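From the pipeline queue, job 12 of 40. The input is one protein chain; the requested action is below.

Action: predict structure.
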Amino acid sequence: DDEIRSLSQLAAAHKEQITILHSQLNLQTEDNDLLHMHRQVLEMKKEEIGDLHQLNVDQNAKLRALVAKQQEDQLTIGMLTEKLQRDAQHRLTSTHLEKVLERESATDARRRKVLAGLPKALWQP
């Protein structure tokens, strides 16, 4: 009878130990599932970081191209500004020469008028 009681107590202790081990196994399984989910999240974050890095690289390339285009445009603007300044100077020079020619033409006309009033023997050889 003592042996049955002892075996019964031993069986109960084993049953309790099995229940505890089963609970621990369930907790470890849940921990493993959580770790697996965390790994998946980390992989997705890693891919997202890679995508963001590539986007950054692409945007930097576009920015460098825009800066180069802006520098090219600034050079073009500088050259066009110089050309406009030269053209304006030529126009001023041209306008000045036209005025000089007009004055000379008026002077020539006055000379011809004066000469026309004089006898030809005075001004023709």
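Job complete. Helices lie at 2-117, 120-123.
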